[in-house]
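Lab channel / #folding
Pinned by the channel admin:
"Please post every new chain as: sequence first, then the structure tokens as a reply. Keep commentary short and put observations after the output so the thread stays searchable."

First post following the new format, from NK:
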Amino acid sequence: MKWRRIPLGPLQTNCYIFSNDKKDCLIIDPGGDAQQLISIIQKQHLKPLAILLTHAHFDHIGALDDLRSKWDIPVYIHKNEKAWLSDSSLNGSQYFMAGKIEVKSAEQIINGEGVLSIGNFELKMLETPGHSPGSISYYHAPTGIVFSGDALFSGSIGRTDLPGGNHEQLIQSIHQKLLTLPEETLVLSGHGVETTIEAEMESNPFLNGF
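Reply from TO:
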């Protein structure tokens, strides 16, 4: 399995392409710049199977409809944010951008934790609310990576001042769902560079003293 980080959209949100030896891939959080992303995928001769969303803020969903028009693949989102894709007030685009982002509803709704199987990809779904009520992280144990969205960053955590945000809930999510992963787990965040669970346990100032 291989992964590639591609910053996209107005906030340079990290989109990830997670691929296997068969050239199948999953697309995680395509925030914008759809044609750039499509070009990268085509040049690598990859076959997208699905789009996974860690949450539905505007900077994570901007390329959804263009990608679905290109490949006719399903979008997965947590049930707590299924209405956000088509509502610019919920996904935040009407407050942070000149134009609203409203995209089609997701084809697949995640109702809770468990194992998500798509092709030969198997990811453990971890509910990590706090940054938003439907935030979810995807953990791939064989590769030792977790796609944490905007829950946990290198040296920081997600903001909680947006609708549905809850600081105490986010801290609890990080400690109970992410910091319990193996310390060597690579954390692939929604913004910035990758980090490890060990590094955040030792030096993240927002998690000290909990």
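NK: The first helix runs from residue 34 to 43.
TO: also worth noting, The first strand starts at residue 2 and ends at 8.
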